[in-house]
User: What shape does this take?
Amino acid sequence: MMKRTISAMIGKGSLRHNDRNFIAENVDEERTKNNITFCNEDIKAVYHELFDEALEKYNAKQMRKDRMIDDYYEKIRTGKQEKLFHEIILQIGDKDNMSADSANGELAKKILDKYMRGFQERNPNLRVFSAHIHMDEATPSDAAFFSHSCLL
Assistant: This one.
């Protein structure tokens, strides 16, 4: 029986890195073609989809013009109290026992794939707008981003 750890961490979040708009030092570009993208939606569009109706209701109740919010995405993006999104990174094993270019790495990929395919259904109160399995790093990892969960 093979025993491995599963680690999860809350990441700082880099949309550009995870959708490979830039290549970091820890990425093997030869293996980028093996990555899996589950979804990769524009975060601004997701914010408008999720919050425009609530924003309209919020603004309709405001008596003072200075309390109105023109664009909720911009308010959160430029604010200092909230994050635009939250990221979770999952990894099975480490580079020594689950290397991305090994049979064990393929097993990790299958496990992470199965986990991610059911994630949104298991977590209906979160909105996944970007999710990827990276096979071009030392160990397969699953990065999923959740939209801001605060309602006005």
In short: The chain has five helices and five strands. The longest strand covers residues 85-92. The radius of gyration is 18 Å. Residues 148-152 have pLDDT under 50 and may be disordered.
